[in-house]
Predict the 3D structure of the following.
Amino acid sequence: VFGEAQAILAGDGLLNYAYEVMLKNALRHPENAAAHLEAIGIMARAAGITGMIAGQVQDVFLEGKEINFEQLSYIHAHKTGDMITGALLSGLELCHPTQQQRDALRCYGENVGLVFQIVDDVLDVTAGEELGKSRGKDALEGKTTYASLFGIEQSMRIASEKTEEAKKALEVFGAKAEMLCALADSMLSRKK
């Protein structure tokens, strides 16, 4: 709506504001400072040069080039998956989790991040302007996507399988994970 430059600045501002909020919260709970600092570190890595930025750099660098499934998986894992996983793990860290709980949320986040990207790829082919981008924009930009590699039907089958894997990973949390299971389902069924 306001142009690419403003969108980038808004993203930068929101990311930095997230660290402000996390640091203020850490100062309010000095008795749990170590966990708060670890949570902040988790988010910094998820958003940083080995996380979201790494995925986005690869996505931009490989635009217009033919890429393989491994490269596409790397982009999706870092571009979206790391941010979802980072948000989950940073919140969990404040509760002094077990390694089993960390592994479960990591598996969930990675799968839900992939589902988001697969569905986004499919919607780029099937949806209209309500997404905020032109239909077929990925193809016009020469981007390899799940839809271009596997087709729409197979891509959605993969997304459905990954949704089930994500929900299965949450079994360790029992009923406490109902909201996250619903979120996984909503990622799969979203229309925009």
